Amino acid sequence: MRRLGTLPLMYQPGERWLYNVSGDVLGVLVARVTGQSFEAFLRERIFDPLGMKDTGFHVPADKIHRLPPLYAPDPQTGKYPTPTSGTPLSKGWTPRPTRATTAAGPR
User: Fold this and answer.
1) pLDDT for 23-43, tens place per residue?
2) Cβ contacts of residue 74 below 8 Å, gap of 6+?
3) Fewer CB within 10 Å of terminal CB in the chain, N or C?
4) Closest Cα to residue 100, out of 41, 52, 18?
5) For the chain, how are helix, strand and coil distributed in percent, rounded to 5?
6) What is the DSSP string of 28-54?
């Protein structure tokens, strides 16, 4: 956290937003203040009280069938494959991440 405060901004305020770092900083601060992991804190204080039983940082293997396919554009053409011609990227969501992060995408 100390080192992060010494780094220059990637963008001037109001110019652009970088989501990844803000969520990670929030996770570290929540863990330090509460003594719980970010994931445990969110589950106890937000997800469980609201009945959000399927919300989390990964998809358990026994529930992966409920995740819709995710298709990425072809790097050469920029076109998205049709469901019959492409390979879904959903498999990357099943492993439990090493740390809870709000950054989008599988880790």
Assistant:
1) 888 999 999 999 999 999 999
2) 80, 81
3) N
4) 41
5) 40, 0, 60
6) HHHHHHHSS-HHHHHIIIIITTTT-TT
